[in-house]
Write a structure and sequence with these properties.
The complex is a heterodimer of chains A (795) and B (307).
Chain A lengths: L1 H22 L3 E10 L10 E5 L4 E3 L5 E7 L3 E7 L6 E6 L4 E2 L2 E3 L7 H12 L12 E4 L1 H6 L9 H5 L5 E3 L7 E3 L7 E5 L2 E2 L4 E2 L4 E2 L6 E7 L13 E7 L8 E6 L3 E11 L3 E10 L1 H12 L3 E19 L2 E18 L5 E22 L2 E22 L2 E25 L2 E23 L2 E6 L4 E16 L2 E14 L2 E17 L2 E12 L1 E4 L10 E4 L7 E13 L4 E18 L17 H4 L5 E17 L4 E16 L8 E2 L6 E10 L4 E10 L3 E2 L4 E5 L13 H4 L2 E5 L6 E2 L3 E14 L2 E10 L9 E6 L4 E8 L4 E10 L1
Parallel strand pairs in A: 1-7, 1-8, 12-17
Antiparallel strand pairs in A: 1-4, 2-3, 2-5, 5-6, 9-16, 10-11, 12-13, 14-15, 16-17, 18-19, 18-49, 19-20, 20-21, 21-22, 22-23, 23-24, 24-25, 25-26, 26-27, 26-28, 28-29, 29-30, 30-31, 31-34, 32-33, 34-35, 35-36, 36-37, 37-38, 37-39, 39-40, 40-45, 41-44, 42-43, 45-46, 46-49, 47-48
Chain B lengths: L1 H17 L3 E5 L8 E7 L5 E8 L1 E2 L2 E2 L11 E6 L5 E8 L4 E5 L10 E7 L5 E7 L9 E8 L3 E3 L9 E13 L7 E11 L13 E5 L5 E2 L5 E13 L7 E12 L1 H15 L20 E16 L1
Parallel strand pairs in B: 2-19
Antiparallel strand pairs in B: 2-3, 3-8, 6-7, 6-9, 7-8, 9-10, 11-13, 12-13, 13-17, 14-15, 14-16, 14-18, 18-19
Classes of the chains: A mainly beta (795), B mainly beta (307).
Chain lengths: 795, 307
């Protein structure tokens, strides 16, 4: 089977090669890189079109493009990218030609007029022109204009505002895409996987918007170059750094401050970018805690840092080195009365990516990436009381070492072929525990490193045939753990039919496999959720997704897309009833290790999700924004949960609506607002108690007699996720005022999070008063929160 | 300047903290009162009993007592011949219905149905199948060893603290259990150091501990192997090395409803009050929304090793 597939793939490539050689007599290539002129930052996704031949293509994420042109025929070539001035020139190519283009950012004050002109000239729509569906590019500039909690701009929060994407709960950054869990999202920063994208239990994401160049979300119809997750791909790229001049930005907010610095190391040849931020909540609260708690020192902080270096080795070779380092830390130290009690709880990600771009020919581009990714969760507790000492150290760690080799080949005007291979060595330590008492080990379980290998090979071809566009693609994924192997073919297909220049009907089918799972407690979303590998007993997750829809562009920069999807998921895992990270006897040295195994605590099942998403967007002009609406159902079924009956997923959300509006009142003043509404989460709520007189197994057996067993009771939850939290809705308003000063552009932002102070539920609990009356109470985290921030983008 | 900075920090802190965490009372979900039926039958008893009650609400005024059902008609039917017995209310204070079994032979593999008619006209049914009788003589210890102890002095130096002794035990059960039944050895191992001299020989030098508490699935191969890797603590003035003196206890067999309900109750007990734990949904083999269990079990006690 494998051989047959490989033979077919080689045959297809050889055929294209043949046609390529044949056609080469009439066609030449125009290739090069597209960058932002003022900074040298490479631009991906720039539309390039030739007239009158109507050949078109787009630049890849490294800014490279290659387009076929008719030999010795004058052609007008256009470069088009939202927010940039249209660039064009006429060229009659006699041979393969290299053009690197620097696009100029559009001046702010006359955006709208310019855009109108561009639309008349280019006569090409954006949303209807793409073959992929369920894919959204998120403009970084818009992220900065959307109001956020405590003024902390957050790309993940903006992604939550898109249709098909749901937030977990109040303030949380975790996202649920088309019924999938947070572990089903492949979040990659410069090709490196980020396992936990959350700071402060999810109230903020780890991505510092100042360091990002592009963000792309794919919810379905996945290109074959992506694999390893079921529900979405969030592909983030860091800025490369301005290679023309030094620029930077500093910002001061209510809970954190940040800085970004970028500039050339050698002008036009190499550049760097460094960006960092840190919260100072611990510093602000320290005097208050010290004053009220007699010597207790407790606090929380997070920090992160992004850095990137790039070097243009030659016209055909480029080198990029980028990294991320971030950490959250809670600590509490109580050293009163001579005793020592110290506790800390932290988690963090580290990534390092080295990439080498090489252009083999004007039509063949490659990128080789060496990738390292690390995530750890640690919990440390030390207690020294008199002569007695006790310490507990818990760690859950993932280390990934991988490489990717991707090729981008554009042999013919109507074909763009990508192919490549990738491999990752995952090294999991799901739960390393060391418990020491009196200086000696009570439990030392530090050697349980599970090493797994995940690899894949893919090929995809974007084909244009008149009004039809196809992207058939195929990925073969392989996974090895111990002696167990999984080999899974993943066929995918995207089709687009352009009924007119502004209206396209689209469809996509994709199969995905996922070889790692996130064990998550349904009660609360904490970093204690454990990443664990698929094993011999725990099979890889698998999904199939079918999506259909249409996209329509309208005059004035409006676009509409409606998509419906149906997704099935297999081998999802959840904790068994009663199991948990803390509950199981993980910390009891007398409990046998085989019953502590996470595998013994989980059960697997299936899920399905279906729904319709509506997305109305206006990207340009004085007023921009979007309306996103999703109607969806997500249903799970586990033989060992809920008595084997189907139940709604926690984040099953019937209605999800987001309204985003950004209005540029003047060149320096912007008003933005968002309003979100979502059906409440489904949670499990106790309903009653039952009298239980169950028979017990014991070493001295007895015959059941209800008279002797009466008096016990059990909580009756009736069914899993039987209760809906109240609907969530919230209005955020932000006002940005910018002013040119001598040193640069200074921006003040006043924002109101939850402007009408809606008491959205964070969680519920039962509370019993002195009269033995139990009431249901709701905890709300954030009513109206105003915030003020200041930033300076210096020249 | 310092005062302005302090004021600035105070305002920032106030703005942040003023927003956090408020709670309010909300309407609980509507409560539905449900009947609860509990009954276990075993060949070891010539009585068949059931206890009938109603659930009580989780929210609102809490009461200690449950409401017991005293006006129901309860029957057990032998599904092999449709013979039936009616259980009579014997204790109205605790909703217990009982009948002396003069009609049924509770042989392995026979299935029975409990039928409960409530006064409001609702009927609830559940089935159970009698498991094979366990045979303690067929449970053999094939391997036993006590490993080198690890010493925990608790920081107190020699003579303090305790020792942890690894204990390996392999068991085999040769006998038909059937793939649809479950069994559970509930064993106790007693360890002894019988080489001690005065004054130890006047002390209790035995240590007994429960080996396990798990339910295993039967099979049709007539052979089940169980490997235990456990440990027991010693010390506390009872020095080792130890030898196995005896292993004794009980062996249970049960049908699936019994096993599922038992595990469910364990989980439900285990997660009480733990916010990080998965809630355990009560399961029931009764129809029409009643909670409870009609299950069957059998047992035998004995000694599987005695030095």
């Amino acid at each position: 089977m494998m051989k047959l597939v490989l033979r077919k793939a080689i045959l297809i490539i050889a055929l294209f090669q043949f046609f390529s050689v044949g056609k080469a007599q009439q066609l030449v290539s125009i290739s090069g890189y597209i960058s932002e002129k003022s900074s040298g930052e490479m631009l991906g996704g720039v539309a390039i079109a030739l007239y009158p031949s109507r050949y078109s293509t787009s630049s890849n994420s490294y800014g490279f493009y290659s387009i076929s042109a008719r030999k010795n025929k004058p052609q007008k070539i256009y470069y088009r990218f939202p927010g940039f001035q249209l660039d064009s020139f006429i060229w009659s190519a006699k041979s393969d030609t290299s053009f690197s283009v620097g696009l100029v950012l559009m001046p702010q004050e006359d955006d709208f007029e310019k855009i109108k002109k561009i639309e008349i000239v280019a006569k090409k729509s954006t949303i209807a022109d793409k073959v992929e569906m369920s894919k959204i590019d998120i403009p970084i500039n818009q992220i900065k204009e959307i109001p956020a909690l405590l003024g902390e701009k957050d790309v993940m929060k903006v992604i939550q505002l898109l249709p098909g994407v749901q937030k977990g709960g109040e303030g949380q950054s975790g996202i649920y895409v088309r019924g999938g869990g947070p572990d089903q999202n492949l979040i990659i920063l410069d090709e490196a996987t980020v396992y936990n994208a959350n700071h402060l239990f999810g109230f903020f994401s780890v991505f510092n918007g100042d360091a990002l160049k592009s963000v792309e979300l794919t919810k379905g119809g996945f290109p074959a170059r992506y694999g390893g997750r079921l529900s979405s791909v969030i592909d983030l790229n860091m800025k490369e750094g301005n290679n023309q001049k030094y620029v930077g930005e500093v910002g001061i907010g209510i809970i954190s401050s940040r800085f970004t610095l970028e500039g050339p190391i050698k002008k036009g040849k190499s550049s760097f970018m460094v960006s960092g931020r840190r919260t100072y909540l611990d510093i602000l609260a320290k005097p208050l805690i010290m004053a009220t708690s007699d010597g207790l020192n407790a606090g929380y902080y997070f920090y992160d840092m992004n850095a990137k270096f790039n070097y243009i080795i030659s016209e055909k070779d480029k080198l990029f080195v980028s990294g991320y380092f971030g950490r959250d830390n809670f600590y509490a130290n109580d050293n009163t009365s001579g005793d020592i009690n110290e506790f800390s709880f932290g988690w963090g990600n580290r990534t390092l990516t080295t990439r080498w771009n090489h252009q083999f020919t004007p039509r063949l581009f490659s990128n080789l990436s060496l990738i390292y990714s690390h995530y750890d969760l640690t919990l440390n507790s030390t207690s020294i009381v008199g002569k007695d000492s006790f310490s507990l150290n818990y760690a859950s760690i993932i280390n990934d070492f991988g490489f990717k080799y991707d090729f981008d080949w554009r042999p013919l005007p109507n074909h763009q072929i990508r192919y490549g291979v990738s491999a990752i060595n995952h090294r999991f330590s799901p739960s390393a525990i060391v418990i020491r008492s009196g200086g000696e080990d009570l439990l030392n379980k530090t050697v349980d490193v599970i090493s797994t290998f995940e690899s894949g090979a893919y090929i995809e071809d974007q084909i244009k045939m008149d009004e039809f566009k196809f992207m058939p693609s195929f990925r073969l994924s392989h996974y090895l753990i111990g002696s167990k192997q999984y080999l899974n073919p993943e066929p995918r297909l995207s089709i687009s039919y352009n009924y007119s220049r502004s209206l396209a009907f689209k469809g996509a089918y994709s199969v995905m496999n996922q070889y790692i799972h996130l064990l998550s407690s349904s009660g609360v979303g904490l970093p204690t959720d454990l990443w664990v590998p698929a094993t011999e007993n725990i099979k890889p997750m698998r999904s199939e997704q079918l999506a259909i829809g249409f996209a329509k562009d309208y005059k004035g920069g409006y676009s509409l897309s409606i998509e419906s999807y149906y997704k099935t998921m297999e081998n999802m895992i959840q904790y068994k009833d009663g199991a948990s990270f803390f509950l199981q006897d993980n910390f009891d040295p007398n409990v046998p290790s085989d019953s502590k195994s996470w595998e013994s605590q989980v059960t697997s099942g299936t899920g399905k999700s279906y729904g319709t998403e509506v997305f109305i967007q206006k990207q340009m002009g004085k007023f921009s924004g979007w309306i996103g609406y999703t109607l969806s159902w997500t249903i799970l079924k586990f033989d060992e949960l809920n008595d084997g009956k189907p139940f709604y997923a926690k984040y099953d959300r019937r209605h999800d609506l987001s309204l985003v509006g950004i209005y540029k009142i003047s060149k320096y003043l912007t008003l933005a607002a968002t309003w979100v509404y979502g059906t409440g989460n489904a949670i499990t709520m106790p309903q009653g108690y039952m009298a239980s007189s169950a028979h017990q197994l014991s070493k001295i057996p007895y015959v059941w007699n209800p008279s002797f067993s009466t008096g016990n009771s059990q909580i009756d939850y009736t069914s899993r996720n039987n209760f809906r939290m109240e609907p969530y809705h919230r209005l955020d308003i932000g006002l940005r005022f910018s002013k040119e000063i001598k040193k640069g552009l200074q921006t003040w932002e006043l924002s109101f999070y939850n402007a009408y102070s809606r008491m959205n539920p964070f969680f519920y609990y039962g509370s019993e008063d002195n009269n033995n009356v139990v009431t249901l109470k709701k905890v709300t985290l954030f009513p109206l929160i105003p915030s003020l921030s200041w930033s300076l983008k210096f020249k | 300047m310092k005062a302005k900075f302090t004021l600035f920090l105070s305002i920032l802190a106030a703005v942040f903290f003023v927003g956090c965490e408020t709670d309010s009372v909300v309407e609980p979900p509507p409560y539905e009162k449900k009947p609860v039926i509990m009954s276990f039958i075993t060949p070891k008893s010539n009585e068949i009993s059931a206890q009938l009650s109603y659930t009580k609400p989780y929210f609102g005024k809490q009461t200690y007592d449950f409401e017991y059902i005293t006006d129901a008609s309860v029957y057990v039917v032998d599904l092999s011949n449709n013979d039936s017995l009616e259980l009579r209310l014997t204790d109205p204070n605790t909703g217990i219905y009982t009948v002396l079994n003069t009609k049924f032979s509770l042989n392995a593999g026979k299935s029975f149905r409990m039928i409960v008619h409530l006064a409001n006209g609702k009927t609830f049914t559940a089935n159970t199948t009698i498991p094979p009788s366990p045979d303690m003589a067929k449970l053999k210890a094939t391997y036993m060893s006590i490993g080198k102890p690890t010493i925990e002095t608790n920081g107190g130096g020699p003579g303090f603290g305790f020792e942890t002794n690894p204990f390996l035990l392999n068991l085999e059960y040769r006998g038909a259990l059937g793939a649809k039944f479950y069994f559970s050895p509930q064993l106790v191992a007693t360890m002894v150091n019988d080489s001690l001299q005065f004054p130890y020989d006047s002390l209790d030098v035995e240590i007994s501990f429960k080996i396990n508490d798990e339910i295993l699935k039967g099979n049709t191969e007539n052979l089940v192997k169980i490997n235990y890797n456990r440990s027991f603590e010693s010390g506390f003035n009872i020095p080792g090395p130890f030898k196995v003196k005896s292993i004794w206890g009980a062996l249970y067999t049960m049908d699936k409803p019994y096993r599922d309900f038992y595990m469910n109750q364990l989980n439900n007990n285990g997660n009480g009050g733990n916010p990080f734990s998965e809630p355990s949904i009560l399961i029931s083999n009764f129809s029409e929304g009643a909670i409870g269990i009609f299950g069957s079990y059998d047992f035998e006690k004995g000694v599987i090793y005695n030095r």
